[in-house]
Amino acid sequence: QVQLVESGGELVQAGGSLALSCAASGLTFISYTMGWFRQAPGKEREFVATISRSGSSTYYADSAKGRFTISRDNAKNTAYLQMNSLKPEDTAVYFCAAGVSDSDLNYWGQGTQVTVSS
Fold this sequence. Notes:
A hairpin with a 6-residue loop joins strand 5 and strand 6. The model has no long low-confidence stretch (mean pLDDT 97). The protein has strands spanning 3-7, 11-13, 18-25, 33-39, 46-51, 58-60, 68-73, 78-83, 92-99, 105-108, 112-117. Strands 2, 4, 5, 6, 9, 10 and 11 form a 7-stranded mixed beta sheet that branches. Strands 1-3-8-7 form a 4-stranded antiparallel beta sheet, with no helix packed on it. It is mainly beta.
């Protein structure tokens, strides 16, 4: 079955950087759009970024533009989210997702906790 496993979340100080990874299995990775979402305590899950199957197209939430970079390595079946200039408001559980399109991300990982201290 399809599995998405996120890693890389940890406690970091404001202004720091983190690199998240999402290892995929059970699917033909290159056939899927990949995305990152996050959910802060008491808030709804929100979109962070998506990347097309080839990696040639990316799309970011306004909160992520200029600070976060989504990428993928189709040879390793892995998607990444590089996060720089982290802020306390970036604290959340970060989830990766896979789907046939940006609007049809139907496979989800269990999430990785990112905590940014002020």
